[in-house]
Amino acid sequence: MTATPIVDVDGVYKSFGANEVLRGVELHVDEHQVVCLIGASGSGKSTLLRCINGLETIDAGEIRLDGEIVTGRGVDLDWLRREVGIVFQSYNLFPHMSVIDNVTLGPIKVLRIPKRYAQEQAMALLSRIGLADKATDYPDRLSGGQQQRVAIVRALAMGPRVLLLDEITSALDPELVSEVLNIVRELAEEGMTMLIATHEMGFAREVSSKVCFLDGGVVVEEGTPEQIFSAPEQARTQAFLHRIIEAGRL
Amino acid sequence: MSLLASRPPAPTGVARPRTATRVHTRLTPSIVALVVAVVIVAALWWSLWFFHSSLGVDGWRLLVMDLVLIVIAGAGLSVLIAGVRAVRAAMRAESRRRDGDLTAARVAAEDAKDAIWYVVGFGLTALVVAFLAVFLSSNDGAVRKTFFDWTVMGKSINPLLDAFWLNIKIFVVAEVLVLIWGLVVAVCRLVPGKAGAPVRLLAVAYTDLFRGMPAILVIYLIVFGLGLADLPLVNSLSRDQQRFWLPVLALVLVYGAYVTEVYRSGLESIHWSQTAAARSLGLSHGQTLRYVIVPQAVRRIVPPLLNDFIGLQKDTALLAFVGVIEIFNESTLLKSKYFNLTPVVGAGIAFVVVTIPMARFTDYLVRRDQARMRAST
Question: Which pTM was predicted?
Answer without folding.
Answer: 0.74
